[in-house]
Hints:
This protein is an alpha/beta fold.
Amino acid sequence: MKFTLKPGALAATTAALALLLSACSSGAPAQEIGGAGSVEGQKTGIVGTQDQIQDISELCGDEPMTVALADGFGGNSWRKITRAVFEAEAAKCPNIEKVLYTDAQGDTQKAIADINSLVAQGVDIIVTFVDGGEALLPTIKKATAAGVKVVPFVGSPGGTPGEDYVDFVAEDIKTYGGSLADWTIDAMGGEGNLVMLGGIAGNSYSQGVFEGVKDAAAKSPGINLLNADGPISTDWEPGKTQQVVAGLITKYGQIDGIVADYGGGSVGGIRAFIAANKPLPVWSANDSNEFACLWYQYKDDNPSYQIATESSRNWIVKVALHKGLAAANGILSDEPSIYNLEIIEDSRNPDMLPTCEDSLPPDAILSSGLKVEQLADLFK
């Protein structure tokens, strides 16, 4: 069976609000800079909408280039899809002769070694998901000083965009967490036990999302945020998430709502509730095919089970590549680097029902920017 998202729902991703700097939103204006990683007069932290993403052909240039995606952790489907988006975008530039990829496997020291190796190989642009946070900043600054255009995305290394690296590309993660939490709390009726599930321990992305969740919970006196000290680590893996959630069920007994920063991992948590014969709670995350499909499978037996998602925004890696190309080619870019996300699927809204595409694998992400055929090929 195929359940289709109603026209216009995906367009809800295209709103913009606050600026994210470092690990979470700062509300600061875009800054004009001229440091080693930038073009003179280039602004960083430009806020905009997804429909303002530019055609890469205007940024490619003519000189032969080598670009790289330095991943801090490549061990889940989100990272696999994001790599595919990056490689597909790079393939549109005929002058990009090599596209390299490294996977630090969640090891900060390996992430440092990977970036150093890429610099030694003479790459022109490094796009990187910094899972190791500020521990990577000295290495990134060293790469920038060597003339490499470095663009972190989603996971922040701290430092100063436009000086220590070209720019930081992300959604406003605090707004993301707050928006999902507001929806979840409303669906819970403003009362009950709430949990926020994050990824690898200590990563800046999950911490930023948590800050939004924490603020939303603080405005709701009937909500008890069970993990008030920070996000609960799941390593962004379904199997680990199932184990973690099973432990939470044993520890707390009653869980009424969950906000997660990875829908693909959340499917493991759903299985933990089923295995424990516990009613499924209200659940929000970013979109995943299986996350949507499981709602259709279990909703009739779990009246309180509602879900909502925001875009998994794999497409944001394209913008990071664009920013690197613009800097390398001396082009002033007005393309946004900070994007606000909104709810794109809402099981309580007949016009925004979750999309379950049974022709695609469970791990497919429909908002990724890849076509259905590309997603099918990727998971063969």
